């Protein structure tokens, strides 16, 4: 069961459903999916994934769901929140490969940024990505993220070294679309 917490045109964000642990286990153990994530070297059992989802579901983490089919396609969330300095880390992955390159990640990330800036009142939202993940970097740039720095040659995979790139966006670089519309239509 999913709930439409934040709604876009292609997808919506819902609180995570712990019962999806088998689907997540499948995705995070698929090397093609996992290679783009920071924890690709881990082997995750169904039991471990269920524990992870139980923890994540208590925090600001969301399932990404196709709006037309109500099918789970991935997740995103804020693994680190610093309320004093108003800085948050965001993480995103589309586990269902049929949805890659079709704008779902971009829309989901926009929904998350709107939530992070408009509801959580963050000032800076950042993410980390490896330099070999060109599709993700392209997506992040389209949303408005800029490169803030690099940890050079931080990842060794298949005998090659790659940089870990830190990208960020500031609250005044992001224009609320979804939440601003809700508030203006309801005349709160």
Automatic annotation (TrEMBL):
PANTHER family: GNAT-FAMILY ACETYLTRANSFERASE (PTHR43415:SF3), SPERMIDINE N(1)-ACETYLTRANSFERASE (PTHR43415)
Keyword ATP-binding attributed: no
Highest taxon of source: Bacteria
Protein's name in the database: GCN5-related N-acetyltransferase
InterPro entries xrefs: Acyl_CoA_acyltransferase (IPR016181), GNAT_dom (IPR000182)
Keyword Transferase: yes
Gene Ontology molecular function terms on file: acyltransferase activity, transferring groups other than amino-acyl groups
SUPFAM superfamilies, A to Z: Acyl-CoA N-acyltransferases (Nat)
One Pfam short name: Acetyltransf_3
Residue ranges of domain N-acetyltransferase in the record: 11-172
Keywords: Transferase
Segments forming a coiled coil: none
């Amino acid at each position: 069961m999913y709930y439409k917490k934040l709604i876009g045109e292609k997808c919506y964000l819902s609180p995570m459903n712990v019962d999806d642990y088998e689907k997540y286990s499948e995705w995070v153990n698929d090397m093609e999916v996992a290679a783009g994530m920071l924890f690709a070297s881990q082997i995750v059992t169904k039991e471990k994934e269920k524990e992870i989802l139980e923890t994540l579901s208590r925090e600001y983490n969301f399932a990404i769901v196709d709006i037309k089919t109500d099918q789970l396609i991935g997740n995103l969330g804020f693994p680190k929140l610093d309320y004093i300095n108003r800085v948050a880390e965001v993480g995103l992955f589309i586990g269902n490969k049929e949805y890659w390159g079709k704008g779902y990640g971009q829309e989901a990330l926009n929904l998350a940024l709107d939530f992070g800036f408009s509801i959580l009142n963050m000032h800076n939202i950042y993410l980390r990505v490896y330099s070999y993940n060109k599709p993700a970097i392209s997506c992040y740039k389209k949303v408005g993220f800029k490169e803030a720095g690099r940890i050079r040659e931080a990842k060794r995979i298949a005998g090659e070294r790659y940089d870990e790139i830190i990208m960020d966006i500031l609250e005044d670089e992001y224009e609320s679309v979804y939440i601003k519309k809700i508030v203006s239509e309801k005349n709160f």
